[in-house]
Amino acid sequence: MTLKGERIEILKELEDKINYKFNNFELLNLAFVHTSYANEHSSLKGKHNERLEFLGDAVLEMVFSEILFKNFKPKQEGYLTKLRSNLVCEASFSELSDEINLSKYLLLGKGEEKTGGRHKDSIKADLFEAFNGALYLDAGYEVVYNFIYGLIKDKIFDENIVVENVNDYKSMLQEHLHKYKNINLKYELVKEEGPSHDKTFYIEAYLDSKFIGAGKGRNKKFAEQNAAKNALKKLHVI
To answer: Which of this chain's residues are annotated to bind Mg(2+) (predicted)?
Structure first.
């Protein structure tokens, strides 16, 4: 894929944002080629970002593991595993992608664009993985580590966020309700506020049609956890 001036300029804007200049500019661009775009452009010959996504997924798990290992030394394996599972996931990666607005640089097919693909959590999370896969190939592990640490350091050292990450209130609520038969627990997104990089989601929890709790959070996963927590309080479980 031959990069034109406008595309080069927009990718240079991203380089300035992350304070790193890619040695392989084609690799950087490939990280943003979605399969839907590749399928609509025969000149790409099927080249898209899924292989980089595969690599980035593995690199990010290692990076997050090392960050948690180094910064939560008194904590044991179970605690670290729970915390990592809440950081290495679709909701977290989508949020981190929004922080540097990676979707702005994404190349999507026309159909995917029309259906709102640029704003889907799954696509934004996959994009975050692909970008970090490209960064790893171009710069190495240390650069990826420093990049991720810079993005998350304020969050992982916020005690309130850490506690909420580790406590799985949704599982606690599900376990409490397990003794009741034929009850349908569901979570509904009521609204979302704020710009794409700093959204707040509002979720309500229902048993069948009965409201039992509400919560908000910086992504849907955390909002659901807070709704479950408030439901547990209302049911006098915690």
So the answer is: 53, 126, 129
